[in-house]
Structure formats: C-alpha cells, structure tokens
C-alpha cells in the first residue's frame, strides 16, 4: 500500500493556528488521574451502551473526518467495514469521498454529519439522501462558521482533492458536485429548520460553553458532542475534557453528552465517562488505522480502545460505563 503523502498526512494531523488546542486536548487528559476503587468483584464487564435505539459494543464511536480515500483506496467504505466489525458506529462526514449509500451497504450503523448550507433546498436534499440511505441520526457541526487558517495546509498548498476524488454526497440534482460552504450567518433557528425537514435525532457537534448546552436543550436537540473539532477550528479553544464538566452540569441528564478530541487510550475513555460523557468519538486514530491497515486496521484500533477500556474499568472497580462517577478522577 502506498504511504500517506506528507501533504495528506499534514492535512489529517494538523490543526488551526499554532496548534495549541490540538495539543491541549491530549495534554488535558494527561493532567487527570484515576482514583480507583478495589475489591469490587466486577467479574465480566459489560461495555455496551444504547444511543437513540442503537446498541454499540462500547462507548467508543468513530468521529466524522473528511476525505478517507486520501488515506486508503476504499475510503469510507473500508472505515465502515472496520467499524462494524468492532461493533461500533460511524459518523459519516459530509466531506466523505464515498457515496453514503455505499457506506450504508456495509451494514455499519451510521450517523451523518452536516454543515448546514446557505442553500436550504440543497441542505434538505443532502439530508433526505442520507436519511434514505438509512442513517440513524444527524450530527450538525456548529463550530465552523468559517473555515479556520491551517498553516500546514497553506504551507503545503493543499487546496483540493486529487483528480477522480470528490465529496460524493454533495452532488446536486444535475450531478454537479458542489463545494462545502461554511456559513457565518447560522443562528439557533437552523435547529428548528432542520427539525422541520427530518425526523432523525439531531446531535449538535462542537459545543464547549454551558450556556450553549442549555440553549441546545431548549431547542429540542437529542444530544451534544463536546468538541473543538480536534483543534482544527478555534486555536485557543479550551480542551474538550476541561470543558466537559460544565456542559454536563448544564445539561443535567436531559440528553446524552458525547465528547471528542484527544482520546487515545482506554483510560481516556474511562475519564471522559467518569466526568459525565455517555460516549466518546475518535478522529485521527481511525484515520491512521485506515491508512495503515484498511478495514482490519480500523477494527483493530477500535478493538484496542475497547480492550483498554475494559481493563481500565476492571482496574478502577467498575463493571459498566454507568458505574463510572466523578469521584474516580482527580487532578494529576
Ligand atoms: C482530518 C480531519 C477531518 C475532519 N473532518 C471533519 C468533518 O468533515 N466534519 C466534522 O464535523 N468534523 C471533522 N473533523 C473533526 C472530528 O470530527 C473530531 O472532532 C476530531 O477529529 C476529534 O479529535 P481527535 O482527532 O483528536 O480524535 C475532522 C478532523 C480531522 C482530523
Ligand atoms: O478538515 C476538517 O476539519 C473539516 O471539517 C473539513 C470540512 C470540509 C472539507 C474538508 C475538511
């Protein structure tokens, strides 16, 4: 298999600005330690959780990331096969390089990530297509009113997909592929407009402020993802694991709160769950696994996180994700 080109590797690895938030996500996990309980007779752990009616093997999901065919010739179809083999769920990026119908044909449970477009009719057609393909939730990314400055991509002159690769889910009625527009005029009414065009659960991705979590609940969304886009949007944004407690408090159990950014090992999952997350998503680790080993690589990477979580649960004295509580973590 050809190696990832340095330009594409930088696209996947990089972040906005000076990459402080990118580094902060992992560094923040490194400043938290577990305070384990002992003699809890956990026996066999049960990692399964159910989100909007879909059961997954463990609370470790695949975050939406763009352009998987840059990492592997089978692109998002291979990612979905690997995700299904691990018993997990994949959020398909709106910038996927495979048609959502082909990804769905793997039988992997899918959610679809959306950047609401200024053209409301086009947005509705994209959502309708994903819904018809069988996706089970709509993940609306709200942290991207503009596309951030990413120095690595600028330096590398990375602007476009290579010939023959397109965002397959952005074809309009004529078959022309539209480009994704970021929309700095989006307000909370977009949630109400999406609610009117789809019956799918709506999950907002990119919440960091507790006041926005409260607004999201008021607008009737079904879930939240605490995310800073893996440090690719606002450089200087708070690390996600540091933002989580206030968001969880504001939500007060009314909705599931998920988290992504910097989750690299089973203990990171345990810490996020202890601080109130229902599940986590992983972005770059899945891309690297896809590039290195295709579907089997993705399966192994997710399995590795799940095995690590299982061991961490046993060692911290918990049998299920629901048993994880904030008293199990402390500052390093
Ligand atoms: C290469 C790459 C592409 C991404 N593309 C999208 C995208 O199309 N839509 C989106 O909502 N988030 C996108 N994200 C953000 C991820 O969904 C997620 O928030 C982030 O990767 C989590 O951090 P992690 O990579 O540290 O696990 C992208 C992230 C990366 C690394
Ligand atoms: O790179 C990203 O983070 C991202 O979200 C994106 C969105 C649209 C096209 C390409 C990438």
Automatic annotation (TrEMBL):
<feature type="binding site">
    <location>
        <position position="232"/>
    </location>
    <ligand>
        <name>glyoxylate</name>
    </ligand>
</feature>
<feature type="binding site">
    <location>
        <position position="113"/>
    </location>
    <ligand>
        <name>FMN</name>
    </ligand>
</feature>
<comment type="similarity">
    <text>Belongs to the FMN-dependent alpha-hydroxy acid dehydrogenase family.</text>
</comment>
<dbReference type="InterPro" id="IPR008259">
    <property type="entry name" value="FMN_hydac_DH_AS"/>
</dbReference>
<feature type="binding site">
    <location>
        <position position="150"/>
    </location>
    <ligand>
        <name>glyoxylate</name>
    </ligand>
</feature>
<feature type="binding site">
    <location>
        <position position="229"/>
    </location>
    <ligand>
        <name>glyoxylate</name>
    </ligand>
</feature>
<keyword id="KW-0560">Oxidoreductase</keyword>
<feature type="binding site">
    <location>
        <position position="93"/>
    </location>
    <ligand>
        <name>FMN</name>
    </ligand>
</feature>
<feature type="binding site">
    <location>
        <position position="115"/>
    </location>
    <ligand>
        <name>glyoxylate</name>
    </ligand>
</feature>
<feature type="binding site">
    <location>
        <position position="227"/>
    </location>
    <ligand>
        <name>FMN</name>
    </ligand>
</feature>
<keyword id="KW-0288">FMN</keyword>
<dbReference type="GO" id="GO:0010181">
    <property type="term" value="F:FMN binding"/>
</dbReference>
<dbReference type="InterPro" id="IPR037396">
    <property type="entry name" value="FMN_HAD"/>
</dbReference>
<feature type="binding site">
    <location>
        <position position="205"/>
    </location>
    <ligand>
        <name>FMN</name>
    </ligand>
</feature>
<feature type="binding site">
    <location>
        <begin position="64"/>
        <end position="66"/>
    </location>
    <ligand>
        <name>FMN</name>
    </ligand>
</feature>
<protein>
    <submittedName>
        <fullName>Alpha-hydroxy-acid oxidizing enzyme</fullName>
    </submittedName>
</protein>
<dbReference type="Pfam" id="PF01070">
    <property type="entry name" value="FMN_dh"/>
</dbReference>
<feature type="domain" description="FMN hydroxy acid dehydrogenase">
    <location>
        <begin position="1"/>
        <end position="332"/>
    </location>
</feature>
<feature type="active site" description="Proton acceptor">
    <location>
        <position position="229"/>
    </location>
</feature>
<dbReference type="GO" id="GO:0016614">
    <property type="term" value="F:oxidoreductase activity, acting on CH-OH group of donors"/>
</dbReference>
<dbReference type="InterPro" id="IPR013785">
    <property type="entry name" value="Aldolase_TIM"/>
</dbReference>
<feature type="binding site">
    <location>
        <begin position="283"/>
        <end position="284"/>
    </location>
    <ligand>
        <name>FMN</name>
    </ligand>
</feature>
<keyword id="KW-0285">Flavoprotein</keyword>
<feature type="binding site">
    <location>
        <begin position="260"/>
        <end position="264"/>
    </location>
    <ligand>
        <name>FMN</name>
    </ligand>
</feature>
<dbReference type="InterPro" id="IPR012133">
    <property type="entry name" value="Alpha-hydoxy_acid_DH_FMN"/>
</dbReference>
<dbReference type="InterPro" id="IPR000262">
    <property type="entry name" value="FMN-dep_DH"/>
</dbReference>
<feature type="binding site">
    <location>
        <position position="141"/>
    </location>
    <ligand>
        <name>FMN</name>
    </ligand>
</feature>
């Amino acid at each position: 298999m050809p190696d990832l080109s340095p330009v594409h590797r930088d696209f996947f690895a990089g972040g906005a600005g000076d990459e402080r938030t990118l580094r902060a996500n992992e560094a923040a996990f490194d400043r938290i330690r577990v305070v384990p309980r002992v003699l809890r007779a956990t026996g066999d752990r049960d990692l399964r959780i159910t989100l909007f009616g879909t059961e997954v093997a463990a609370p470790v999901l695949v975050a939406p990331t763009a352009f998987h065919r840059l990492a592997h010739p089978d692109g998002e179809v291979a990612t979905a096969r690997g995700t299904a083999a691990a018993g997990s769920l994949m959020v398909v990026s709106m910038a996927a390089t495979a048609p959502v119908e082909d990804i769905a044909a793997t039988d992997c449970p899918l959610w679809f990530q959306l950047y609401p477009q200024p053209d409301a009719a086009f947005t509705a057609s994209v959502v309708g297509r994903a819904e018809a393909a069988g996706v089970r939730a709509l993940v609306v990314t709200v942290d991207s009113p503009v596309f951030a400055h990413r120095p690595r991509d600028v330096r590398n002159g990375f602007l476009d997909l290579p010939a023959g690769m397109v965002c397959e889910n952005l074809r309009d009625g004529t078959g022309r592929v539209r480009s994704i527009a970021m929309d700095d005029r989006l307000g909370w009414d977009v949630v109400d407009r999406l609610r009117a065009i789809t019956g799918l659960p709506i999950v907002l991705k990119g919440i960091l402020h507790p006041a926005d979590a409260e607004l999201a609940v008021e607008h009737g969304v079904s879930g939240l993802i605490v995310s800073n886009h893996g440090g690719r949007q606002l450089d200087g944004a708070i690390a996600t694991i540091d933002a989580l407690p206030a968001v969880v408090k504001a939500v007060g159990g009314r909705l599931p709160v998920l988290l992504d950014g910097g989750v690299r090992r089973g203990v990171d999952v345990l810490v996020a769950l202890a601080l109130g997350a229902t599940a986590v998503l992983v972005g770059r680790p899945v891309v690297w696994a896809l590039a290195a080993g295709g579907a089997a690589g993705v399966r192994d990477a997710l399995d590795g996180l799940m095995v690590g979580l299982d061991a961490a649960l046993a060692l911290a004295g918990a049998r299920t994700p629901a048993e994880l509580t904030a008293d199990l973590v402390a500052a390093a």
